[in-house]
Amino acid sequence: MAKEKSEWFDWVKALLIAFGLAFIVRMFLFAPIVVDGPSMLPTLHDRDQMIVNKFIYTIKEPERYDIVVFHASAQKDFIKRVIGLPGEHVEVIDNVLYIDGEEVQEPFLTMQKDQMKSYQTLTTDFTLENLPGEHEVVPEGHLLVLGDNRSNSTDSRMLGVISIEEIVGRTNLVYWPFDRIQIVE
């Protein structure tokens, strides 16, 4: 009888430890997220399921072109790509991204730009000063983010720059559906 009780207690203890570890991983390290909408097409598709790395920005700073998840509101998280970093001036003129006056390539938009007709616009012209907040440069502690589907994305052009405090983490692993499993660059 004592042996059965000891064995039962060992199982309960093992399950509690497993649930505790799962809770810690989910709360502080990694979390699942589902892409909602077309704003990151063709890179990410609506309903793609991804893993968010929640601790990466505790050990390093966000980098240009990272795909990040951030709190757009108390109820909604958005997935966008980092374009402008603190201290940089950002503008788009004739579908060309300029950072501090220098042309910057956006390799993730190459396919979209190649398929465009000469009269089409992928990204409506803007300068940082024209966006909400009217900043001359991206302020310290903030990022400028854009969706890859520039004609159908609610991003910094409408929201203004995003506080790094609102960043949940970086995501680049699509794990569902199976035919889309990939690491996104």
Automatic annotation (TrEMBL):
Q: Which keywords are on file for this protein?
A: Hydrolase, Membrane, Protease, Transmembrane, Transmembrane helix
| GO MF term list | signal peptidase activity
Q: What is its EC number?
A: 3.4.21.89
| Protein's cellular compartments | Cell membrane; Membrane
Enzyme class per UniProt: hydrolase
Please list the residue ranges annotated as the Peptidase S26 domain.
9-176
UniProt superkingdom: Bacteria
UniProt topology in membrane = Single-pass type II membrane protein
CDD domains to which the protein is assigned, alphabetical: S26_SPase_I
InterPro entries xref list: LexA/Signal_pep-like_sf, Pept_S26A_signal_pept_1, Pept_S26A_signal_pept_1_CS, Pept_S26A_signal_pept_1_Lys-AS, Peptidase_S26
Q: What SUPFAM superfamilies does the database record attribute to this sequence? A: LexA/Signal peptidase
So what family is this one in? Belongs to the peptidase S26 family.
What name does UniProt use for this protein? Signal peptidase I
Taxonomic lineage of the native organism: Bacteria, Bacillati, Bacillota, Bacilli, Bacillales
Gene name? Answer: lepB
